[in-house]
Amino acid sequence: MPTRPPYSGTERKLVFAFDVGTTYSGISYTILDPGRVPEIKPVTRFPGRAQVGGDAKVPTVIYYGSDGIPQAIGAETEREGIEALAHESQWEKAEWFKLHLRPNTRTSASVTEDIPPLPRGKTAVDVFADFLNYMNECARSYIAETHLDGASLLASGRVEFILTHPNSWEGAQQTLMRRAAVQAGLIVDTATDQARVSFVTEGEASLNFCIDKGMMNESIRQGEGVTIVDAGGGTLDINTFASKGTSNDEYEEIAAAQSYFKGAIFVTRAARKYLDELLLGSRFYDEAAFMADKFDKTTKLAFRDPNDPQYIRFGNARDREPNLGIRAGQLKLDGNVIADFFEPSIKCIMDAIDEQRRLSTRQIFTVFLVGGFAASDYLFAQLQERLQSRGLDVRRPDAHMNKAVPDGAIAGLLNPTVRTRVARYTFGVQCGLPYNSAKEEHARRSANRLTLWSGDVVLPGGFESILSRNTQVSESQEFRSSFSEEASEKDGLVTDNTTSITCYRGDDPCPEFVNQDAGNFCDVFDVHADLSELIKKLEPQAGVGGGHYYRLDYDVIILFGVTEFKAQCAWRENGVEKRGPAEILFDTEVEYQM
């Protein structure tokens, strides 16, 4: 296993990684002591759980009272009789709430009916904040009780947080998660304090976990590609990386990351649908929900062979209906029927790996399967069998798979490995394009052309790409787009400048005009910069027809290669480039009440 260097910082601090999963959540942490080698440890003690020092995961579930106050959270929802108490007290259950934060895309829209609604009067951020608050309290209590100087370390304020999220989540989701962190009391709403929260994708965290566990063989270390499949409760996150051959375990992403809503919960959803249809019209129909819950907690993980039937116990010895496969209070499920529940997830992984191999710039021979769903022996065996014929070796860590993401998030902090990422979409700006009568599409739109003060002729509604899909991007690589505004007077120029960055999610090639494929274009964030000082220095220029005008020229610079995008504004004064700060503001309309 790789050895970590001693912490080189000058101040002692504590870092928590909170992995809020769709069905289960976990916390890992490290205490950074100057000059000492850091360790990655899990939080294993949660209020409401009988055993101490046991499982490092808790259900991602909250029960709310009629007043909107949480009555039971996480491990507390596992207590004996909690469901009966919740029913008697008319508590509302919030589960799978993380998925309400998902990006608003065609793929995510297809699972809307499968996701339970949020409690009345609660937004996704509200529920997420309540769960973060619970995790923070559990983590702080654990540190204070487990480490001799834990209380003083917590009181110092030198505490940072890493929040994990699926590959498909973008800046809007990060903005909502940070808002939830403020609401939960992890940080306060200032720029300095917000920097104490950072993000990592579940795919990258899983890579770091595999590296930290010493799973990389010599072929991978020499540059052979490796695909990581993080099979979680809600999503399947797939990434492919290759070593850059350096001595410090530096890796580059070699295919665009993918994320699909085909995690373990959708196997349970398929089982519930089957049970509803099977038991419809029978006296056992009301038991379908209970059976589906038993399937989720026991049958799904125990299932190994389609030739072996499985039994779900739900009643007493007198419960019998042979036509439905019910005898002595047990429902018999044919193994092939259960295999069908798994098939969409297995096929999704197979297709995703094929796509990763097609897009990859290196050969891939190894697949690592991690995440809570990876604990399914049937899923693992099926992937091994099917991928072996394609020359792929499938492995999974000899460790608690549900710890991969929070442990990997900390490992990535201690030893940053991914320095190059691949753009999942094309990014650019909507703008006026220089008119070119030789182009057929331009000639067709000639009636729309506009003449600027400078005499330049443009066509509105165009799209200029800044970063193309499937482009490898390093963390320090800058992408820029040049802009200009013209007005007869300085007052006509916008001092509080906002530039909208547009994303194209369609197939290549990207069209030249937005209305050629309008459904696949969307504004993803705005870059805001104060250009008032620059405008004050502008000199008038001679325009066509003898008048004068003012022209504002500037560049928007964006760093797309980091987990959270960064931006700057640039311009030239006396031939020298100057730079100023720019703020990225994401559209967070995904936040809604159900």
UniProtKB/TrEMBL annotation:
InterPro entries: ATPase_NBD. SUPFAM superfamilies: Actin-like ATPase domain. This is Uncharacterized protein.
